[in-house]
Design brief:
iron, mainly alpha, binds protoporphyrin IX containing FE, monooxygenase, two-stranded antiparallel sheet, 371 residues
Length: 371
């Protein structure tokens, strides 16, 4: 898993360095959201299905495999349909008539996505049948492991269950991680002192003779503070996933009957002025030396249904952001601050996708050339 993430992050750094080298001024204008989404999706695709071998030769613009690209297209279709408000949210009778064709569009997009996942599983099954995918545990794809389990417990590990597990990994893990990284880079571009401090920490801890590795992350305390502060200000699942009370209870004096749908507003809790000093300001230092202990931070939820991908997400974020900070100088496009407006949707996207100027750091050019 870590090897898959590291290799996708290397590919992202290589692509950014090439783009900068191709520019006469040595700095490339990049739309970071796209790069960040691609690296998250590719890392998960390699973990789930190991599609690397089918990567298109000479696809200079992207390091995604054709499978990852196809899946991205299906998400591009589905996500806006799910996140938007529909007239039937206000007038339920419209649901029966599907006035704007939303229901049909969702069903068509979901059935295309399911057909794709089925093909992914069949391809892995064929590979296993041909004697492939029998490497050590670290090398096996998630689908290969599940297909192995299917041989002994077919009634549990059905193709439908495997499809659902793949789907959950992709839908819960890509947009959330990519959006957090995009907010973090936006905050750093508007706070160049924090960016410089992160670069100084990186130089002192990792140096400039090699690329950041996952085992460096525990020693990069300030980078971790930046990630925590980003998740505080812009939690990518701001209202959590709806929960349901399993029994009558009383919370803060309110009676909650059994079976009530409950949303937890993490976004408001993270900005509560009675708990956080200067809650709207970006201050990564507030997380230094356990200073925030006892305060409510819940970007990954809490309790039994807490996000199971937390450790993976933090590792991906550490490697992605750390590599961007270690290898490149970052500048805003023009003199204006980066627009921090929030868009609508399930995962608190930026209203205006982040664009930035990226130039390899002189001390890292030899490392980047060797990627
Ligand atoms: C910055 C990245 C991420 C954030 C902020 C995040 C946040 C969350 C939150 C808030 C929930 C709902 C918890 C609740 O309702 O109590 C959740 C659920 C979930 N997340 Fe994540 N997540 C992230 C990345 C990931 C990744 C990388 C994966 C796996 C590849 C993942 C897999 C899941 C799954 C499977 C659930 C449903 C758990 C359940 O219902 O029992 N997440 N996540």
């Amino acid at each position: 898993m870590t090897a898959d993430i590291a290799s996708e992050v290397r590919a992202m750094a290589r692509r950014l360095a090439r783009a900068a080298a191709a520019d006469p001024g040595g700095a490339a204008l990049v739309e970071l959201k796209r790069s960040l989404f691609e690296v998250s999706l590719s890392a998960l695709m390699e973990t789930v299905a190991q599609t690397k071998t089918s990567r298109a030769e000479g696809a200079e613009d992207t390091d995604m495999s054709p499978e990852a690209q196809e899946f991205k297209e299906s998400l591009d279709e589905i996500v806006p349909l799910l996140g938007g408000a529909n007239m039937w949210d206000f007038l339920p009778v419209l649901r029966w008539f599907d006035v704007f064709g939303v229901r049909n569009k969702i069903l068509a997009a979901v059935s295309r996505r399911d057909a794709f996942l089925r093909r992914l599983i069949d391809a892995q099954r064929r590979t296993l049948g041909d004697g492939g995918g029998e490497g050590d545990g670290e090398k096996k794809s998630m689908i290969a492991v599940l297909l192995d389990l299917q041989k002994t417990e077919p009634e549990i590990y059905t193709d439908m269950v495997i499809m659902a597990l793949c789907m959950t990994m992709f839908s819960a893990g890509t947009e959330t991680t990519a959006t957090t990284a995009e907010w973090a880079m936006s905050l750093l571009l508007n706070h160049p002192n924090a960016l410089a401090k992160a670069q100084a920490e990186m130089d002192a801890t990792v140096g400039t003779t090699r690329l950041l590795r996952a085992d460096d992350l525990p020693r990069l305390g300030y980078l971790h503070c930046i990630i925590s502060e980003t998740l505080r200000l812009y939690p990518p699942v701001p209202a959590m996933i709806p929960h349901e009370s399993s029994a009558d209870c009383t919370v803060a004096g309110y009676h909650v009957p059994s079976g009530t749908t409950l949303l937890v507003n993490a976004y408001a809790i993270h900005r509560d002025p009675s708990a956080w000093e200067h809650p709207l300001e970006f201050r990564p230092e507030r997380f230094e030396d356990g200073k925030t202990e006892g305060l409510f931070m819940m970007p990954f939820g809490m309790g039994r249904r807490k996000c199971p991908g937390e450790a993976l997400a933090l590792r991906m974020l550490g490697l992605v952001l750390g590599t961007l900070v270690q290898c490149f100088h970052w500048d805003r496009v023009g003199d204006d601050e980066v627009d921090m407006g929030e868009g609508g949707g399930l995962t608190l996207p930026k209203a205006v996708p982040l664009q930035a100027m990226c130039r390899p750091r002189a001390a890292m050019t030899h490392v980047l050339r060797g990627l």
